[in-house]
Amino acid sequence: MAIARRGTLRVLGERGVIELTGSPRAQGHIHGRDARAGIVANLAEARRWMDGMAARGRRYDQDAILSQNERFIARVAPEVVEEIHGIAEGAGLPYRDVLALNAPLYVVATHLPLDCTQILLGPPATRDGRTYMAKTRDLRGSLEHVVLHRQYPDGRETAEVNAAGTVTWPGSGVNNDGVAFGTSGCWSARTVVDIDRASDGWLLVNGHLPLRDSRSLDEFAARLSAQRRVTPINVVAGDARGGATFEVTVDRVYRTPAADGVAVLTNHYVTPEIRQLGPTPEEHPSSYARYETALTQIRARHGRWTGEALLDLLANHVGYPQRSICRHSQDGQGADTVYASIAAVPDGEFWTTLDHPCRAQAAGRT
Question: Is residue 5 part of a domain?
């Protein structure tokens, strides 16, 4: 297991952690150099998804959409464009190819489900008084992921899990002020993606930016709400003082404080006002099964939760293989858990496994 601690965050990952320092372009160069194989694999997977969509009769002017979204990113976050240039240079790959990974039409246009589970546990639910932010990312397909530990010249520090080659849509992360978050997709047959908004919004919500700049949960919430976006998403976030769920539509964010130290979201909306916009139990049975499993297990051990116990919950196989929190595709069908993470605040510890959490549990990696 690699352990990195040059700043205030302690980042643990069994496949190694990529340490990023310097300017955005320099950080990108390190990322591209160290994760080249994963980036090449992700480019091939993205092409397969887009080719499959085209074969089903859904075609887009990908170059035009990519240019539109690039102009938006350059306007609101030019440092992100610089970092993408650095990734391309470090990996020795065409800039436009890496840009396409970061303007993920291959996810958005295909409605590719991001079937994830997010769990925040804090006082009084935890035995040790810490707040834990946990996440699994489940994909119907395969993307290689990396753990990026960033240290900025101004002393800011973050740790995130990203698809290799991307910086615009991390699934989870934590910063040195003890703010942590996780995301999950919330799309249904009623989700309308206005791709013409690519010139004026993130194709997927960019959690990297509010994580980088926020010193509290309230600051994170304000920055999340202010982001212009093309697609909906679910977010769970917290700091040492508490946590909340954020059910995000394209034009509004619904915030619900953690109740009794517990906040859980999967891939449907819970807030009654928007529940009909998300998938129904018939449309997405796994989302509802994982949500109920998490709440049932949490209630049974309320007040006694630790980081080790939370790993056991992420590895839970009730409803195996597709309705369990730790999901396993069968013969290439269904979603597969590609990574799990647990952030502990205010300790500043971020643990990840780029694999099924049940395997990390079996290996005793805590």
Answer: no
